[in-house]
Amino acid sequence: MGAVVLGLVLEWYAATSEVPWLFLLAAWVFAFAAIAGVYAAWNRSGLTLHLRVVANRPAAGSPVEEISDHLLHSGPLPAPVFEGDGFEIEVGLDTSGAARGPAWLNGRIGPSEITVGTGVVPRSGWRRLQVVRELPRGPVDATSWEIVSSDPLGLFQSRRGCADSEVALVLPRFTSLVSQPQTRELEASVAAPRAGSGTELFGVREYRPGDALRRIHWRSSARHGELVVREYEPPGAQTLGIFFDPAPADADIADQVARIAASEAWDCIREGGRVLLWAPGLEPSLAGEARSFWSLLEWLARYPGSNDEEEVVPPTVSDAVAVTGGSDPRLVEALETVRSRGGRARAWVVGDAVLDVDVPVSRVGTGWPL
Questions:
Q1: Which candidate in 38, 72, 102, 162 could, as Cys together with 145 as Cys, close a disulfide (CB 3.0–4.6 Å)?
Q2: Burial zone of 220 (CB within 10 Å; 0-12 exposed, 13-18 middle, 19+ buried)
Q3: What percentage of the chain has pLDDT greater than the value 70?
């Protein structure tokens, strides 16, 4: 608007003062304004937001320092981030076609507000590395991001909002809760015992001489073009059910519940067991991920999540541990069911809640480590 007003003033002054070259100057002002407007529209249309986590920044005492390299390679990419840790994230712009600019970015990554800008966005894209520190457990969202662009003269400016997205998932901290932890490291997702002759299906493998014909899985054999047989869980393999309060009173209690549950899962899977996570009204963990420690940590990172309309019954397990900050009667019922089937049951209570159940109870606060 300033350029347009300036051009009109020059036109008026040229007409009243009879100075011809002022008409040419006014025409140049209008031409620059028109060209700047066209450029600003073109600049705006070809810019897209780029966000990518490139590395983690472990804090003191982070579990990532105790995990074997083999297990880390099977975890989230580029590296797992635990609560209290930070990460490095690329913030930048991509362009379609030719170089563009100027442009800058405003937005939030979790609790951190970020503003960066550049005069030129090259064809290969433009990046700036930002560090976000001391993250709490749960999803880390990129929110309120907008791309601000202009023309080189600064006559036109536009703001374009970007959709919110999740850039990382911060996992709960954990530690071994057994008095004398095993010295061996957890390998891959599981250090599971070899499949045996139990009753629960473990998977399938190629047929070997001496395998019973009744164990042949004919449908899979037809699909693979060779004989494959069923394998079953070995007798005595532990299946631990971890039961949760679906609605913890506050975030501190929810964080402590997630840490204790992650520690219980760590100890169980290290011993070759399976872990199933369940809470009344919440979507349970998948049975196929019962030996995947990373999948269990991701479930715990999102705990308590949102309630499902359909409540799922507790899973059938050999042992159970409740981790709760409340006294939900459905947890008591689930523990009693496990006991009635001959399984072992116990509970962790965070805070002062009273859990009316005849099982061993460990009472803790919200401080970590325990």
A1: 162
A2: middle
A3: 90
